[in-house]
Amino acid sequence: MTAPPRIQIVRFPDEPTGGSRPRVRRLTAEIEIDGRAELVAVLEDERGLRAVSSDGATDGPYVAAALELFRDVFEQRGGEPTAAHVTEKPAPSPRDELRNAVDELVTAAVRAGIDSARTAPAFKLACDSLVRLTARMPALGLERFLGRLKNAVEFGDVEECAMLLGGATQLVADLAEETPSERALERIFGWAALPGFPACETPLYEHDFVELGREWVAGVSRAALERRYLVELGSGRIYREIVRGGRGASVGPSPRFLRAGLAIAGAGAVPPTLKLLQYEVSPEVPTHAMEALAAHAHADVGALVEVFRAAHAEAPGQAEPFVLFSPARVIFEDGSGSLVDGAGRYLPLASSEGLELDAALRRECDDQVPCVVAGRLFLSSGGLILRPFAVLLGDGPAARLTRLR
Fold this sequence. Notes:
The protein has three domains: 94-191, no CATH class; 201-286; 291-403, CATH 2.40.50. The chain is built from ten helices and 15 strands. The protein has helices spanning 61-75, 94-112, 114-117, 121-134, 140-154, 158-176, 182-191, 287-296, 301-314, 357-365; strands at 26-33, 36-45, 48-53, 201-217, 225-232, 238-244, 256-266, 273-282, 322-325, 329-333, 336-340, 346-348, 372-380, 383-393, 400-403. The protein has a five-stranded antiparallel sheet. A four-stranded antiparallel sheet has the order 9-13-14-15. Strand 4 and strand 5 form a beta hairpin. The longest helix is centred in the N-terminal third of the chain and has 19 residues, at 94-112. The chain starts with 25 loop residues before the first strand and ends with a strand.
């Protein structure tokens, strides 16, 4: 015979003193059934009473027992009017839903700590709440944030977690403003397009671009989002196309040259988003375009540090800077590679298992010093590293642009 769950419930007094009765919003309990115990988090918000066990399950005997045992506790409402005068609470706005859900996630992550968040029921519950929101609103920035945060928690990347949670905290503050500033509206737009909020987008007319690389990155699931990195040749500004599941992206190979009659740039992320609406594509990148890439490349590792800092200040939680770098030399030793500037400062190359982009770069260079290496900047052990995506070798008519991934 199955033994009943063992639990002790401490109820509020029938007649509270000193004002209204306290209200339980969230609790964690150890539920034991047949000698086996599980931690179960129980939470009530505008979506109702929910529970999740320490193994991530949202149903099963432990969840059912917790909901049954604690339903009475959550149903007690301190300081509320009697039933005869209760009015139905209006549904929260998408703005409030997003603010509350992100705030709940930050709280759960901080309380659990990075080392324990991966198995913390409250953290999983908060992530699931945000996943449900992404199904109801255009929120590719939020999807990418979730993918990055889950990866950072899984691999114990404290630096990445800190930057992401700092960005989430800024989002909560921006959404709490009664009348958000222009900068706050841009930051919010980088996360989601909320009803009633302006679309922080700018049309671009008659601009030339070169695409330098593509990648699939984590969103609400692994490899859910496709990104393409493009450089606007007049300004050297880098943009990114981002689409879910590869649907809706522009056509053409990579690398490629594009002449865009009309494109839409979106604020709130680094690199900013780009939608190509009217454009012509050439698989051949002309010499003048490659010369422009070289002209816009940084030659100083110190400048890349400033680019990285500025990106995260501009778009906290939505910054993944992509750069053009012109090294003075390239060094490969002891199984790793680095780009070196004229002052002897090193920019290590990321060595990602399964990608081997540093090895691909080494093969392409073949003892040549590249004019430009294009790639994404990461923070690792307190310093910057570069994941290379493309390399430009030679100059003039002999110039050659090669995509590494």
